[in-house]
Write a structure and sequence with these properties.
Length: about 300
């Protein structure tokens, strides 16, 4: 059985569709934990109407953020395997059935996602699928995570619960942006799990323009800066700064690019941080998206020259 943990904070708008996507799974071997993080909208009423199904469980707690809420759900889970689902997203009807076929092949089963605006834009996956690769070397896994190939989010995988419950400190890292990538990176470094990769977009992600990651203000700038410093600290503390110079550099430059289009914030003008990003440009070049190769070059190299010319 797979436990599906859904953290919810004022998620009434799309919560019905989220829950319905689980109730309509081809496989019936699951439990659904709806964890209400102190919502002030109609979330409680929506959750309670599904409690007639014995596989659906509802818990309400004081507001403390998505990481603590997921962890609370993890503590309530009863199965050996857990996965996560955000309240405005859905799973394909075949997701749980496909995942069940490959449970036990590794400690983490990683899969892809597809973005959508309307449900009729979603593409279902074929039922016949094989694991494309199994990774056992933790450095190789971390490189894939930092490059965004696998496990950028905790909802991109099924985990052995007994391994997760040993990692509360890194799971609840208090970051607001990139928290899942950092957790998965530290989790692999600490626990050395095996990862099997399913090349299917089983998770359907709805863009939420009101989330922190889509809000451009001081709150976002501080969140991005905190994640940059957190990743830098991990690379130094683990002794992997040199080994992961290209992959860690890519992730740091990706975070830096969040500053690039909004120069009127104090972190963008941090000269020491800017020098670090400049040194990472060439090592990370092969991983950079085409548009970032151009914009980062302009920002990190031409920007300073323009100031001198003025």
């Amino acid at each position: 059985m797979i436990t599906i943990i859904v953290p919810i904070y004022n998620g009434a708008q799309f919560l019905d569709k989220c829950v319905q996507s689980i109730l309509h799974q081809n496989s019936k071997d699951w439990e659904l934990l709806l964890i209400d993080d102190g919502s002030t909208d109609d979330t409680p009423q929506i959750c309670q109407k599904y409690l007639g199904d014995g596989r659906v469980h509802y818990f309400r707690k004081e507001n403390s953020g998505v990481q603590d809420t997921r962890w609370y759900g993890l503590e309530q889970a009863t199965s050996d395997y857990v996965t996560f689902l955000d309240a405005d997203d859905i799973l394909l009807p075949s997701t749980i059935e496909i995942l069940h076929r490959h449970l036990g092949e590794s400690d983490i089963l990683a899969f892809g996602m597809q973005m959508f605006d309307k449900e009729n834009d979603i593409k279902d996956s074929k039922h016949e699928v094989s694991v494309s690769e199994t990774l056992n070397d933790k450095i190789a896994i971390i490189k894939s995570i930092l490059c965004g190939k696998i496990l950028s989010c905790v909802w991109g995988g099924v985990y052995k619960r007994k391994m997760l419950v040993r990692c509360k400190d890194i799971f609840c890292n208090k970051l607001k942006i990139g928290e899942d990538t950092m957790f998965n990176t530290e989790f692999v470094y600490s626990m050395s799990p095996s990862v099997a990769v399913l090349p299917l977009p089983l998770y359907c992600y709805r863009t939420n323009l009101n989330s922190v990651s889509h809000t451009y203000d001081d709150r976002r700038h501080k969140a991005v800066y905190d994640t940059i410093k957190y990743l830098e600290d991990f690379l130094l503390r683990s002794g992997l700064a040199k080994t992961l110079r290209a992959e860690g550099g890519f992730r740091l430059l990706l975070l830096w690019s969040s500053f690039m289009f909004h120069p009127n914030n104090k972190y963008y003008h941090d000269k020491a941080l800017r020098r670090k990003m400049k040194k990472l440009y060439l090592p990370a070049f092969r991983y950079l998206y085409p548009y970032l190769k151009v914009y980062l070059f302009i920002d990190l190299f031409i920007h300073k020259l323009e100031k001198k010319w003025k």
